[in-house]
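User: Before I run my own analysis I want an independent prediction to cross-check against. Here's the chain; please return only the structure tokens and, at the end, one sentence I can use as a sanity check.
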Amino acid sequence: MKVIAKETLRFLIVQGGTIVLATIFACYGIAVSYGHVPVWLPMISDCGVYPPEKYLFRLGLVVGSVFLHVESILLYNANKAYSNSRLAMILSLLSSLGMGVVAVVSEKENGAIHGTAAVVTFGFYDLYMIVMSYYSSSEPTIGPISMAIKRLCTVLGVGAMVGLVILSGIGADKSYVALCEWIGTLCIMTYNISFGIDVDGLYLCEVCEDTSNTNDEKKKKITV
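Assistant: Structure tokens:
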């Protein structure tokens, strides 16, 4: 059996976080250029309300949420450090579902649904970061760089969300609330991408060429 192609788990993980971040920044740039939002600083959801940016916003975040959803299941099964917590996987699945709802239901269409989905997205992923960081801290296969990134993202991400709640409650300037949201989002996506460090050498699938046939007929097989 000859392996002729491989697809790494790292590639999938990096794609998920990258798609979400690229979508957000692209929509921000488009919204600013059309005068739909101020340069400093809109809420992320405000960058996906009006056309044309709302089309990219919905597509990119839905695709990104699917990637995050799949990643959480694969990580649960692929790495010893992460297979210890089914709770963590459930938290990530709920968070990715919330992100999908945030993408398809804008704040102008239904503020209650959009707001609830946003709370689910950030709240459950913050809990996910806490749980995963706890399990990772006792796992020798998790390197110091990966662990440092996870701890930093957890502290900053949770802190940003606490700040968002406090600032919203006291009626602070919206730009400060938005800054907390941007920091929280960047921390979540960076935390997610950091899993790519931990899964080095793990493959989603291998495309193999089978030459064991007695007639020397070559057959390609995909091994997951």
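Sanity check: The radius of gyration is 20 Å.
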